[in-house]
Amino acid sequence: MINYLSPEVLLFAYQQGLFPMAESRDAKQIQWIQPKKRGIFPIGEFHISKSLRRALLKNDYSIKINSNFPKVIEKCADRNETWINSDIYDCYCKLHKDGFAHSVEVWKDSQLIGGVYGVAIGAAFFGESMFSEVSNGSKIALAYLHDRLLKTGFLLFDTQFLTEHLASLGAIEITQDEYLTKLEKSLNKNAKFVDTNYSVDVETIAHRSTQTS
């Protein structure tokens, strides 16, 4: 298995259902992961809790796309244990410059308080990591990311693994075979992450699917 990264290698790996992780921030080698169970957000089924709806409608933040992609990765890696080493950081920054990697950022008073980044190929978006420095920061970013994917024609929103946090927002777990079928279909369709026809409507996002919690 290849143990180094380049934009070309990374794009090829995603199309085979693989993604890279390092054992730690200082690790030199890359591991290629292909889980038997895969986490995804079904497009159009993102769950908005009442507390998240209130946070969205408070609208005391601003949403930006790709305004500071490297900073988003830095904040995602700023934790005691991380799988983001220097090679991963450099490679995703190169993918961003090439137009494949994107960030959705939550800003308040000139401070980056939440965000998520990932890679778009065809009509598939591969979510990589997220961070939050305030309550609901990453959830707001995910809500806006899902809305963008829904409105711009994406078919697959990959989360890699299923966590309680993601499950509370509507993520589910599927088998590897199911994932590869969805992946192939998504790669055979084009979607534009940065689409000039896309417009944001926070009311629609906040009320799309509201839970009782």
Q: What's the alpha carbon Rg, rounded to whole Å?
A: 16 Å
Shape: globular
Name given to the CATH homologous superfamily: Leucyl/phenylalanyl-tRNA-protein transferase, C-terminal domain
Output the helix-strand order. Answer: HEEEHEHHEEEHEHEHH
Tell me the number of strands: 9
What is the overall pLDDT average? 94
Largest sheet: 7 strands, mixed
CATH class: Alpha Beta
Instruction: Tell me the span between the first and last alpha carbons.
Output: 45 Å
Strand arrangement, major sheet: 4-5-6-7-8-3-9
DSSP helix count?
8
Structural class: alpha+beta
Helix share of residues? 25-40%
The overall number of domains is: 1
What CATH architecture would you give?
3-Layer(aba) Sandwich
Instruction: Kindly estimate the percentage of residues that lie in beta strands according to DSSP.
Output: 15-25%
According to CATH, the fold-level topology is Aminopeptidase
Q: Would you kindly provide a written description of the structure presented here, covering whatever features stand out?
A:
- By secondary structure, the chain is an alpha+beta fold.
- The chain has a single domain (about 35-205), classed as 3-Layer(aba) Sandwich (Aminopeptidase).
- It contains 8 helices and 9 strands.
- It has helices at about 5-15, 50-60, 70-75, 85-95, 135-150, 165, 175-185, 200-205, and strands at about 20, 30-35, 35-40, 60-65, 100-110, 110-120, 125-130, 155-160, 170-175.
- Helix 5 links the parallel strand 7 (about 125-130) and strand 8 (about 155-160).
- The radius of gyration is 16 Å and the shape is globular.
- It starts with 6 loop residues before the first helix and ends in a 6-residue tail after the last helix.
